[in-house]
Amino acid sequence: MGFFGAIAAAALVWWIGGFLTAAMVSDEPLLEPVASRDMGGFMLNLILGTVCVSLSIPIGIALALGRQSSMPIIKWICVVFIEFIRGVPLITLLFVANVVLAYFFPPGTNFDLIIRVIIMITAFASAYIAEVIRGGLAALPTGQYEAADSLGLDYPQAMRLIILPQALKISIPGIVNVAVGLFKDTTLVSVISMFDLVGMIRGPILASTEWNGVYWELFGFAALLFFVVCYGISQYSQWLERELNTDHR
Questions:
Q1: Integer Cα distance of 72 and 59 in angstroms
Q2: Which one of 120, 145, 155, 209 is at 20 to 30 Å from 134 when CA atoms are compared?
Q3: Cα–Cα dist 200/41, whole Å
Q4: Interatomic CA distance for residues 69 and 147, integer angstroms
Q5: Residues 83, 87, 91, 94: is their CA dihedral positive or negative?
Q6: Residue 127 near residue 81 (C-beta atoms within 8 A)
Q7: DSSP-based three-state secondary structure for 89
Q8: What secondary structure does DSSP assign to 126-178, as a single string?
Q9: Under DSSP, is residue 196 helix (H, G, I), strand (E, B) or coil?
Q10: What is the pLDDT of residues 152-186, one digit of tens each?
Q11: pLDDT digits (tens, 9 = 90+) for 122-138
């Protein structure tokens, strides 16, 4: 069995290698580029939710630290950004991404719509995550900061080794709450003609004569998909909290 298994593995590697070699020397790309207007369905919600949450967490950490900075310029830039974004509805930012943002670029610049939407949703989520993390930083006792000073750590070392790990552990429920809300808010992109799952149901599907009178099944299936993803995120966060709960062990 080992001999024949080695032959089968070698044949598989040879076939894959030949396939990849032929693809690399060919002028045709392996994957065709897809325009943002052609993206749709539940995959668009997953892309927006995953990318925007992943980008907003480090930006939110930077904003939270900047808001607590002793440098006035950095502090007020972060304060103005956070308060402005939190005071504007997400749907307004999406209209800005669709219409206004293109005017800030040179004429003839083709800035993809989905990139503009990701920028606005990331900015929106970053402001809320910054406040969540700021609450985690404020919840730490002052003895943690004093302990970092007594060890002779500078500011970056203290934040990286002592302060931020504890603050992020405290902030997990709030970050997950923002992530779940943001994932559900990705359905708002349907108002700017991006056909996510809800946009596909309200637009092309219900406009077809084959789906006349069918409403509850479609929206029920969409609700089930969102519930499964959001429930999975919630369960993962609870597992992560249990794994990081080492205070009394």
A1: 19
A2: 120
A3: 6
A4: 19
A5: negative
A6: yes
A7: coil
A8: HHHHHHHHHHHHHHS-HHHHHHHHHTT--HHHHIIIIIHHHHHHHTHHHHHHH
A9: strand
A10: 888 788 888 888 888 888 888 889 999 999 998 88
A11: 999 999 999 999 888 88
